[in-house]
Design a protein that fits this description.
The structure holds two protein chains of two kinds.
Chain A lengths: L1 H13 L2 H22 L3 H90 L5 H29 L8 E3 L1 H19 L2 E4 L6 E3 L1 H17 L8 E8 L5 E8 L31 H11 L4 E6 L3 E9 L6
Parallel strand pairs in A: 2-4
Antiparallel strand pairs in A: 1-3, 4-5, 5-7, 6-7
Helix pairs in contact in A: 2-3, 3-4, 5-6, 6-7
Chain B lengths: L1 E6 L3 H10 L5 E6 L2 H9 L10 E4 L8 H8 L10 E5 L4 H10 L3 E4 L4 H32 L1
Parallel strand pairs in B: 1-2, 1-3, 3-4, 4-5
Helix pairs in contact in B: 2-3
The chains are: A alpha+beta, B alpha/beta.
GO molecular function, one term (chain A): phosphorelay sensor kinase activity
Catalytic activity (chain A): ATP + protein L-histidine = ADP + protein N-phospho-L-histidine
Keywords (chain A): ATP-binding, Cell membrane, Coiled coil, Kinase, Membrane, Nucleotide-binding, Phosphoprotein, Transferase, Transmembrane, Transmembrane helix, Two-component regulatory system
């Protein structure tokens, strides 16, 4: 490798000499030709004629060598490019295979983890319903705790699986009708919204966005789901969603505002990290992964996510997302 | 009594499915893997001996549920038997793949047991009734002709 690089450098250094040789050769030939045309001495003319012949030959050889050098360098570059392309393709193939292996591994793990949870969940439910009225308050509480923990484990596995897929699995990007996405999600959250008497209101117009529909839906679902979950008990629980122009070119800034329990200043950055939850939120079920998923998705799409909040007054989550082409 | 065949490798899940379906008037038999089920089905000589419905797990030892289904469809008397996938995986790609391969229903086990039980019974009853009505319609058209 070292030797081949040295020879390449040598060739590189040689190349500027060829045009110089050609230039000097041509200049010399022209001078001789001029002497031949205007000279009167026959011997001198003979000499000049021979010199012209020699110079012509040298000139042809130089030009030939120059052309050969260019050609061989082009060939060498072509070979290098082909080799690098082949290496890159091999690496890509290797990575794709590794990715496939990881996907298979995660799939197997998730299945193998879920199977015993399903069994425990099933048998606990059967026992609970068969024992029914014979259970005292404490025993009923134990069964509820078993089932709640199993539900939590299920969510944890699902969230970790999702987190492992973001950025690793290529998602199809498309133009997304934001209003339709939001309407669908509000319908999905309706039972929980009714339970907590929360309303969701779209406060502004929404442009069409561009990106992975699935991931954008996930961002909205996690943020709206959290807003509903951590609404607390305000007099008039409400969530507002809006959109404005982002300072970042080609992006919109979306905000989701609630009048819920709010987040203390010291937790406002931490909550975006994995398994980090604000102490105020512990009363509600959650894995501590949802906002980390949001952050990963938004940042992979080139945007940022942040929160402004005051405990007891509510929170506003902001995130940036790419607008579709042609959208103002 | 309707004959249901369950292809499921997890003994706990076999018990749970049996429990979920216990109130129905069903005769449930069980195979632990696809290969032994296929071997058994190949010995069916008459249409009356074929099961009325098959419950199939997706992740099975040796051969996965979709592959088992493809092989089942090649066996005489099983070409049109409804097959319902019952599995822990709720991934969209797998559900799509299962329907493409030809399952009639897809029930995930990873839900609340009561919900799972109701859903499974509904899907089974729906397909048993559908097959029953199709058979009835066939025999009536045969009589007419």
């Amino acid at each position: 490798m070292g030797r081949s690089e040295a020879s390449q450098n040598k060739k590189k250094k040689n190349i500027p000499f060829f045009p110089l040789i050609i230039f000097v050769g041509m200049l010399f030939t022209v001078t001789l030709w001029d002497a031949y045309l205007h000279g009167t001495d026959p011997l001198g003319r003979e000499l000049v004629s021979s010199l012209i012949l020699i110079m012509g030959t040298l000139f042809s050889i130089s030009a030939g060598l120059f052309s050969w050098s260019i050609e061989s360098r082009r060939g060498m570059l072509e070979r290098q490019v082909n080799e690098r392309t082949r290496e890159l393709n091999e690496k890509n193939q290797e990575l794709a295979e590794k990715n496939q292996e990881i996907e298979q591994f995660i799939h197997t793990i998730s299945h193998d983890l879920k199977a015993p949870i399903v069994s425990i969940q099933g048998f606990a439910s059967i026992l609970k319903s068969e024992l029914g009225s014979t259970l005292n308050e404490g025993q009923t509480n134990y069964f509820s705790r078993i089932l709640t923990n199993l539900k939590y484990m299920n969510s944890l596995i699902a969230d970790l699986l999702e987190l492992s897929r973001i950025g690793r699995i290529e998602e199809e990007k498309e133009e997304v009708d934001t209003i339709k996405v939001l309407e669908g999600l509000v319908a999905e959250l309706k039972p929980e919204m009714d339970r907590r008497r929360v309303t969701i209101e779209l406060k502004t117009e929404f442009p069409k966005f561009f990106g992975s529909r699935k991931r954008l839906e996930q961002v909205f679902l996690n943020l709206l789901g959290n807003a509903v979950k951590y609404i607390g008990t305000p007099e008039c629980p409400k969530i507002e969603v809006g959109c404005s122009e982002s300072r970042k070119s080609g992006f919109s800034e979306i905000w989701i505002r609630d009048n819920g329990i709010g987040i203390k200043k010291e937790y406002q950055e931490k909550i975006f990290q994995m398994f980090q939850r604000a102490p105020e939120s512990i009363k509600e079920e959650g894995t501590g992964i949802g906002l980390n998923i949001v952050k990963k998705i938004v940042e992979l799409n080139g945007g940022a996510v942040w929160v402004e909040s005051e405990p007891g007054k509510g929170s506003t989550f902001f995130f940036e997302w790419t607008k579709a082409c042609g959208t103002l | 009594m309707k004959k249901i065949v369950m292809i499921e490798d997890n003994e706990d899940h076999v018990l749970l499915i049996r429990q979920a379906l216990q109130s129905g008037d069903l005769n449930i038999s069980h195979f632990q893997d696809g290969m032994s089920a296929i071997q058994n089905f190949k010995e069916i000589k008459r249409g009356e001996d074929a099961p009325d419905l098959i419950l199939l797990d997706l992740k099975l030892p040796g051969m996965d549920g979709c592959e088992v289904l493809k092989r089942l469809r090649q066996i005489r008397f099983l070409e049109c038997i409804p097959v319902v996938m019952v599995t822990t995986s709720g991934r969209k790609e797998e559900i799509r793949q299962a329907y493409k391969t030809g399952v009639c229903g897809y029930v995930t086990k990873s839900e609340d047991f009561d919900e799972f039980s109701v859903k499974l019974k509904c899907v089974i009853q729906y397909w048993l009734k559908t097959v029953e009505s199709a058979k009835l319609a066939c025999s009536e058209s045969e009589k007419d002709s």
